[in-house]
Amino acid sequence: MYTPDPYKNENQEEIEKFLQENSFGILINQTDGKLCATHIPLELDSNKDGNQILCGHISKENPQWKGFTDKDQILAIFSGPHSYISSSWYDHENVPTWNYIAVHVYGKIKIIEGDAVVESLKKLVDKYEQNSENPVRVEDLSKKTMMQTRGIVAFEIEITEIQATRKLSQNRDDKNYQNIISELEKTEDTQAIAVANEMKKCTR
User: Fold this and answer.
1) Strands, DSSP E only, in 86-182?
2) What is the Cα–Cα distance from 116 to 47, expressed in whole angstroms?
3) The model scores a pTM over 0.85
4) Are strands 34-41 and 52-59 parallel, antiparallel or unpaired?
5) pLDDT tens column, 45-61
6) Cα–Cα–Cα angle for 137, 142, 146, nearest 5°?
């Protein structure tokens, strides 16, 4: 991912928090000479060796998994808030742009089976059920329901590289920076307001 130096995020703690909060990503690999992509939750975790991994699963009906050769490189893309930035918000002539937050994760994929699949599903369900009034637990599902796990391909991606971008008008002076925040908040657009909130946190 091309990222000019002012927009590079190399804060590991921030990146991990972003991946945990924006875990619905795009999984990309090559299958039979064709690029494939699937939109799925990919959960940040650590393996038994202490290396960072992403965990996920897709349907066996999805032909993408046939390209999951052991240790093949894979790309996962995660997007955060984004918004158009009008150049009318500057006190000088310039071009419009776009502010956004994104993380690209590269790694080596490995299909997992057996108890590791169930453990991965438990972690996924527990994370997203924690605020439910009547949370579902994998442990409480019937054998009949759990047989549906035969229809998925679960995997781990051992992370080899992370590229993170926070393009939030860091190249603007304080006056224009604050004005961009104000104008984003006026839009009443949820994405724009989220970008404004991220800009307020940004150390330039």
Assistant:
1) 97-112, 152-167
2) 11
3) yes
4) unpaired
5) 998 888 999 999 999 99
6) 80
